[in-house]
Amino acid sequence: MTVRPVEPGDVAAVVGLVRELAEYERAAHEVRLTEEQLTAALFGDSPALFGHVALGPGGDVVGMALWFLTFSTWRGTHGIHLEDLYVQPQHRGTGLGRELLRTLAVTCVARGHSRLEWSVLDWNTPSIEFYRAAGAVPMDEWTVFRLTDQALSAFAADRRP
Description:
Blueprint: E1 2-5, H1 11-24, H2 35-43, E2 50-55, E3 61-72, E4 77-87, H3 96-111, E5 115-118, H4 125-133, H5 149-157
Parallel strand pairs: 4-5
Antiparallel strand pairs: 1-2, 2-3, 3-4
């Protein structure tokens, strides 16, 4: 079972996994990520995105975790927000998903971060069960809000004097 930090040579495979995840989440039409964008985010001058990959028996990238730092003003420490965790269906049940998540937990503990957080779709029962088995608890009192596309542009342009 091999999990390691993502390397530049993994970018094409990781973009492919992001597309597979979006398809699984019934949102393939929303993916705009390019290899160039991911390369810049992971390996540019000031990386704001980090990642790990899981390798299958043949050494191919079969899973990934993409994450970024957050900050809790209440706790006064950074945390990790897990943006995407995905393991190809044929490699699930092998412990790779758990090892990807555990790697992020180890990173949090080693760096003194106080939280490891992520979102999961309400209908994604297998993932919810997986996360609960790891000891994670849902934040039922919180609702995620998002501005994107036209709504984001319109709100940004609505400057009042």
